[in-house]
Amino acid sequence: MLNAIPTAAYTGLSHTHKLVVLLFVVLYVVKLALLLFSEEKLDKMRENKPAKIFEMVLSFLFLGTGIAMWTAVADPFNTLFLIKIVAVFASIPLAVIGFKKKNKVLAILSVVLLFAAYGLAEVKKASYKKPETQDVVYNTTETSVYGKQLYEQYCQNCHGADGAAGLSGAKNLQTSTLSDEETKKQIVEGKGNMPAYEKVLNEKEIDAVVTHVKSLRK
Ligand code: HEC
Questions:
Q1: Which spans in the chain are helix H?
Q2: Domain 136-215, CATH class in plain words
Q3: pLDDT tens digits, one per residue of 34-46
Q4: Would the pTM count as exceeding 0.85?
Q5: pLDDT band per the 50, 70, 90 thresholds, residue 179
Q6: C-alpha 150 – ligand 1 centre gap (Å)
Q7: Residue ranges of the domains in the chain?
């Protein structure tokens, strides 16, 4: 396993991976639609050089960003995660054979597997592994201070120092009305573009971050 990557790199990687996967899924749906309704157009697409190159680049990025993400998540051997990877790797040969031989059943199966993997990824968010080199130094026992340090390390990229930056679709923390419990839950489980911190922060750290987040409210 490689060393963990910094938070900002993980965020960028995770967005790129998501976008690439989405494009990949769209491409396969288009190819499947052509196979089902217009084989002639599918043949044309398969002979089209730019389309071929696009697919190759996309496949390469899919695999590359996927592997990079895999080295960065906290629980790479999580069962759901492994099922997802198996689904993706099963769908690829099925798609290659299905589209080449124009076997509709195989092609449909490959797209279904791809969707299943996509769905699984949405259900169980991968949680980001704590980078060993980025450990916060607790130079104080005062909760409010290390809550701020943890916030600067893990949250500021999206939420900004004052909580109102709203990058990557992050909600404004100054106007948040969530209770302590709800805030905690969101940090532990993540939501939308926000990663889960379950494997990154322990209970005490989460409490400290919650205290800091609340201090940002206006
Ligand atoms: C990759 C960007 C990103 C990072 C890093 C991030 N967040 Fe978020 N955060 C979001 C997004 C996006 C939302 C909105 C999620 C939604 O509702 O779909 C959000 C929402 C929240 C909310 C809910 C606000 C409300 O009123 O609904 C809280 C609280 C929060 N984040 C705290 C944190 C804390 C604490 C950290 C660090 C441990 C953190 N976030 C790190 C992107 C991020």
A1: 7-37, 39-47, 49-72, 79-100, 104-123, 143-154, 156-159, 180-189, 203-215
A2: mainly alpha
A3: 999 988 888 888 8
A4: no
A5: very high
A6: 14
A7: 7-123, 136-215
